[in-house]
Amino acid sequence: MPKLLLATSNPGKIREYRLLLDGLGYQITTLAEERITKIIVETGDSYEENARLKASSYARLSQLITLADDSGLEVDALGGEPGVKSAYFAGEIATDDDNVKLLLTKLNGVPWERRTACFKCVIVIATSQGQTETCYGECRGIIAFEAKGKSGFGYDPVFFLPEIGKTMAELPLEVKNQISHRAHASQKACQVLRQLLSA
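Given the sequence above, the corresponding structure tokens read:
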């Protein structure tokens, strides 16, 4: 069974991808399991640039098929912020809580109907030969007035889904993995990974 390297150290992402990519015929492995300690700095100006940089670099380093993503939250009332800076919105060593607090502070006084937002995810799959494929996914919602829920990570506790009536962090992982931006991008990534297996 060929290995598929997940180019992330984020435990939340690893947990989600293990479920999203289950049953494809790959042995899913991580940077830690492959003893890869090199950190690829995300210097791109877009999700796609960052995902491609990570996927290509780690594919060359590991000689394995590699999946990397970059994702972020774009809030309409903030002109698309935090965007590609989502993970570091409140600073280089910011925690998820720090980022959420800053987001809510910036949206203080903004009414419900103007708190629309979109989670975006770009997955890049790279081979050690330099082939890359790009997959996109998004999920629209509203930024809640306060954090709710203990599941998920990042901005999930304030990302409210009107059609479900809950924040992303209030959903079981199985439900989140059907509707999230990462789920939509992963559906396309699964097709690419199946093609690579049969090539």
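The chain has one domain: 3-198. Try to locate this feature in the token string yourself.
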